[in-house]
Amino acid sequence: MSFISDTLARVKPSPTIAMTNKAMELKAAGHDIIGLSAGEPDFDTPDHIKDAACRAIAAGRTKYTAVDGIPELKSAICAKFRRDNGLHYDTSQVTVGTGGKQVLYNALMATLNPGDEVIIPAPYWVSYPDMVTLAGGVPVIVPCTMENGFRLTPEALEAAITPRTKWLIFNSPSNPTGAAYGREDLRALTDVLLRHPHVWVLSDDMYEHLMFDGFEFVTPAQVEPALHDRTLTCNGVSKAYAMTGWRIGYGAGPVSLIRAMRTIQSQSTSNPCSISQYAALAALEGPQDFLTEFRRVFQRRRDLVVGRLNETPGITCPTPQGAFYVYPDISACIGMRSAGGRLIDSDAAFATALLEETGVAVVFGAAFGLSPNFRISYATSDQVLEEACRRIRAFCEGLQ
């Protein structure tokens, strides 16, 4: 009898973390490595947020808090939803977790029974299917092609729904593609969901504030108020506020769901870090003007990377509407050999050869459920991105 749970055999380690770790190991060994695999802004956390954390420490706010968040932070989250999304929640409808990932995981653990199905559009964030599996559910993967802008169509959604469907996981703008849904795109999907009242929506809005070219962010419960009572709207401070390490995410939804999620959290991690909660409070209530500059910089980097990659033989790179990722297609590279003699028979082989031969770390598309592609995070300096794109082009020009 194995000591390790059978459940673990169905779950894969995070490929994004694995690639980031491999790049760090090579860099520590003295190799010239450019890491484009981590989804983490390179900006520092704004000073007023750090100052709030220091004040919390000085005031002795270092004890246990309520299991799923201090009242002040929950009130600020309610205000944020009203201000930014036109959504109205009471503090009893809000939960705060140790990062957005915990909020999603708590929701799935609190609701899924064995055999329950969860629709996941692909490309997807790598953790979605494994979290569903850990919770006893069945991931139902729906491919969303580059021809459709990597967006779920209403026809594909309708076809994926069965009597066992419990959730649709919706992510806009998307990790890994940066694809976003306009109001009409989303209305077409919510019209389908209205016909299937047993299907709930788990909306991951983590990249809400990183939209480009004037693209308007909208979230499902905002577009279709009739879905308000069967939607968990999730967000956090990690990406927009450059607070990845602070580990604060939050969600809002029906009281019965939030109560069940609180029970899960009470028996796992208990409260998020008290100091991080006061920092998140300052993030949500403090100045928001720096977000405009963050967006400007990310849009410039997006344009740089998209332009350089589309000049590279064998690569087609769509222009994303948000987040800080691109998801280029490498169909034309499959079946070729690298200058180092490696057969490029998959996007995983492409990413491995690229790292080992040029020192550029990206994440292969199969990790996100749609191939042959790879993901670049352009959350780094223009200089680094220019050099990375130069190496990628040299690598592709060397394919035979």
TrEMBL record:
<keyword id="KW-0663">Pyridoxal phosphate</keyword>
<dbReference type="InterPro" id="IPR050596">
    <property type="entry name" value="AspAT/PAT-like"/>
</dbReference>
<dbReference type="InterPro" id="IPR004838">
    <property type="entry name" value="NHTrfase_class1_PyrdxlP-BS"/>
</dbReference>
<dbReference type="InterPro" id="IPR015424">
    <property type="entry name" value="PyrdxlP-dep_Trfase"/>
</dbReference>
<keyword id="KW-0808">Transferase</keyword>
<dbReference type="InterPro" id="IPR015421">
    <property type="entry name" value="PyrdxlP-dep_Trfase_major"/>
</dbReference>
<dbReference type="InterPro" id="IPR015422">
    <property type="entry name" value="PyrdxlP-dep_Trfase_small"/>
</dbReference>
<dbReference type="Pfam" id="PF00155">
    <property type="entry name" value="Aminotran_1_2"/>
</dbReference>
<feature type="domain" description="Aminotransferase class I/classII large">
    <location>
        <begin position="32"/>
        <end position="392"/>
    </location>
</feature>
<keyword id="KW-0032">Aminotransferase</keyword>
<dbReference type="GO" id="GO:0030170">
    <property type="term" value="F:pyridoxal phosphate binding"/>
</dbReference>
<dbReference type="GO" id="GO:0006520">
    <property type="term" value="P:amino acid metabolic process"/>
</dbReference>
<dbReference type="GO" id="GO:0004069">
    <property type="term" value="F:L-aspartate:2-oxoglutarate aminotransferase activity"/>
</dbReference>
<comment type="subunit">
    <text>Homodimer.</text>
</comment>
<protein>
    <recommendedName>
        <fullName>Aminotransferase</fullName>
        <ecNumber>2.6.1.-</ecNumber>
    </recommendedName>
</protein>
<dbReference type="InterPro" id="IPR004839">
    <property type="entry name" value="Aminotransferase_I/II_large"/>
</dbReference>
<comment type="similarity">
    <text>Belongs to the class-I pyridoxal-phosphate-dependent aminotransferase family.</text>
</comment>
